[in-house]
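Sanity check. The docking grid for manganese (II) ion depends on where the pocket ends up, so I'm generating a full predicted complex first rather than guessing from homology. Inputs follow.
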Amino acid sequence: MVDDSDAVRKTIARIVGRAGYDVVCAGGGVEAIAVARATEFAAIIVDYQMPGMDGLQLLAQLRRIQPGAARLMVSGALDLDVVLAAVNRGEASRVLAKPISVGTLTSALAQAIESREATGRRWVAKREGEVQRQREGLAGVLAGGFQMALQPIASSDGLRTVAFEALLRPQSALLGGPEAVLAAAEETGNINALGAVIAGALADKLAHLPAPLQLFVNLHPVELADPTAVLEAYAPLRPYARRVVLEITERGALPDTVPWRRSIEVLREVGFRIAIDDLGSGAASLAALAEIDPDIMKLDMSLVRGIDVEDRKRRLVQMLCRFGAAVGIQVVAEGLETESEVRVARSLGVDLLQGFYLGRPQVDVEASLEAARADSLPVAEEDVPSKSGARAKKGVVLDLAQLRKKRGA
Ligand code: G
Ligand code: MN
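Predicted complex below; grid placement will be based on this.
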């Protein structure tokens, strides 16, 4: 109960107290905010006319501090228009015009609290159902209910497939796509478990992926929270570490309390290379580029799409390629969808190319390899000044027949 008048405060406190509620009083906005930070309330009653912070300003702040509390405003008849507008904006749930009768006050309070509680219960029930759905869906995925699709990454020089990015394709009726799986894993604290299961599945894929083909694997930043745990989770990939690039998306800066630098260090020590994923998307900042000092940077498709028609994007990509060349970071352009985007990307000095134009993600390794072998991409070579000058270096040539023999297929 917040009111600058001692008399009003006392009266209202007495009425509310008699109705069976515990009351805490405050004489003004600053005091009220301090109290609200420390204690949870079912309802807050605020006077509109107060010196300093008025009742509306106070309610706007209390709404953030105590989102679960019912907010009632007491106002004189003259202020009613202003205050009702605040109700419409959702700052107060109820306005009581002075003078207030005992009956009006107690019944308004009871109603406001009850409706907040009903909303709260509905919200909690919905939330619990949602988490349950996430738990069940994730359990299915962790038990093997997923596939890993491979999307080709081609060299800019020879336009040969030199690598694949592994992309999660969940098989779950409860979780729609990879983002839903990640959200469920985040929500239930299973990011490390998910990483480990994926690493296991990818070790099987790598066994069928002939060297020197490389595999790009997406890591969740939370996995970097524990250097020992991340090494353990990715242990199945260690025999192939030299051919594995771990992609890191920032997704909100990693707090400095987390030893993520050490995690990257230990992963590097055992031979993995590190890429910054989605650079330019807002999820990965230039600061990450400086802090992580990656082996590879992957330019987000928001930077890449339309590179052939948007001069500013072209210049940005060119600048990043120059930076990459200067400090020894390879540049991958993601999301290339047209021949002309590919042509411009190559002319700007992008090292590696990825996108639907070069190939879609495919679950079947053999199909991916088959596609990788089809090295006749319809790009006009003569338009493209090769970066190293050496045109069409011999890329990875795959012998499928031999591969099948090796696998006993
Ligand atoms: O965040 P990350 O870059 O890892 O995401 C890769 C996603 O982008 C995958 O889901 C993949 O299917 C999608 N993708 C790959 N190439 C293209 C492309 O050329 N165009 C579009 N629109 N999406 C793509
Ligand atoms: Mn990625």
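Relevant for the grid: The chain has 15 helices and eleven strands.
Also worth noting: The radius of gyration is 30 Å.
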